[in-house]
UniProtKB/TrEMBL annotation:
A family per Pfam: BCA_ABC_TP_C
Molecular-function annotations in GO: ATP binding; ATP hydrolysis activity; L-isoleucine transmembrane transporter activity; L-phenylalanine transmembrane transporter activity; L-valine transmembrane transporter activity
Biological-process GO terms, alphabetical: D-alanine transmembrane transport; L-alanine transport; L-isoleucine import across plasma membrane; L-valine import across plasma membrane
Alphabetic keyword roster: ATP-binding, Nucleotide-binding, Transport
ABC transporter domain boundaries: 4-265
UniProt xrefs under InterPro entries: AAA+_ATPase (IPR003593), ABC_AA/LPS_Transport (IPR051120), ABC_transporter-like_ATP-bd (IPR003439), BCA_ABC_TP_C (IPR032823), P-loop_NTPase (IPR027417)
Gene3D superfamilies: P-loop containing nucleotide triphosphate hydrolases
Protein name: ABC transporter ATP-binding protein
GO cellular component, one term: plasma membrane
Keyword hit for ATP-binding: yes
Length: 289
């Protein structure tokens, strides 16, 4: 049974079909990259999978459970974690607390008797619990340290600092750390290296490779082709909401439909040059083929 199975997923916004009858499957342990020009529907697809948005038609199953109609929190409790294209962290909370919040959905799933409260109240309750749960708290603290350690010296020395004091790249790293604290069965990364310089990008590649080596299943939205080639078991290409190519990375890279999606007739027919991201991607296609 595939870990993730998506069938005929469609989402329309007025007259625009942002995601158009997308089907995909992911086997446990696999990394599937989703690439495509800006506006192709990649983030919308993640929103549909994670329950933040609701499809017009189509189904998403995680580990055999249909996710249809479930809230994002229920979906998280089933083991699905994601990061956002425009990183989201709690600026006034420390690095440590931002990561701890990632355990919230998991802990509530393990203790269904707990009342439905927000993550901060949950943390506050944890603080007044007596020694009986001290061991659990120590285990959580150790887990935070281990997860932050995946990012070398980037986050660990800043564990007590508020997230708003972090650099942009560190906030993106922190978001991934929080997602990992869920101990996800499936991790969705939306452009994890967007806005990062080459050194930071190379570091992120190693972090994601480490997750992959540990057997984590991932969907990766990424524009930087060297990452896509290095990390993907398979690549799926979206254009105009629809899947236009899918397969092994090298084959997809050479697919004329893929090249056209980035630098195709649509653009040459216009006076304006294609968007910079498309030019860069096409350049990378040439450089790596
Ligand atoms: N909430 C929304 N309302 C209306 N249109 C949207 C909404 N979200 C996304 N879109 C549109 O759907 C298309 C796909 O967007 P998106 O999924 O963000 O693309 P990508 O992540 O591939 O760049 C775009 O044309 C975008 O403007
Ligand atoms: Mg996007």
């Amino acid at each position: 049974m595939p870990l993730l199975e998506i069938t005929g997923l469609t989402r329309r916004f007025g007259g625009l079909t942002a995601v158009d009858a997308v089907s995909l499957h992911l086997t446990a342990g696999e990394t599937l990259s989703i690439i495509g020009p800006n506006g192709a529907g990649k983030t919308t697809l993640f929103n549909l999978i994670s329950g933040i948005d609701i499809p017009d038609t189509g189904t998403v199953c995680l580990g055999g459970h249909s996710l249809g109609g479930l809230t994002p929190e229920r979906i998280a409790a089933l083991g699905l974690a994601r990061t956002f294209q425009h990183g989201r962290v709690f600026g006034n909370l420390s690095v440590r607390d931002n990561v701890l919040i990632g355990a919230h959905a998991r802990l509530r799933a393990a203790r269904p008797g707990l009342p439905l409260v927000g993550p901060l109240v949950e943390l506050a309750l944890a603080l007044v619990r007596p020694a009986a749960v001290a061991a659990e708290e120590q285990a959580l603290a150790d887990e935070v340290t281990a997860i932050l350690g995946r990012f070398g010296e980037r986050l660990l020395p800043r564990i007590d600092q508020p997230a708003h004091s972090l650099s942009y790249a560190n906030r993106r790293r922190l978001e991934i750390a929080r997602a990992l604290m869920l101990r996800p069965r499936l991790l969705l990364l939306d452009e994890p290296t967007a806005g990062m310089n080459p050194t930071e990008t190379a570091e992120m590649l190693e972090v994601i490779r480490g997750l992959k080596d540990d057997g984590l299943s991932m969907l990766l939205i990424e524009h930087k082709l060297e990452l896509v080639m290095a990390l993907s078991d398979r690549v799926m290409v979206l254009d105009g909401g629809a899947v236009i190519a899918e397969g092994m990375p090298a084959a997809v890279r050479a697919d004329p439909r893929v090249i056209e999606a980035y630098l195709g007739r649509r653009h040459s027919a216009e006076r304006e040059p294609p968007p910079l991201a498309a030019q860069q991607f096409a350049h990378q296609l040439e450089a790596t083929s």
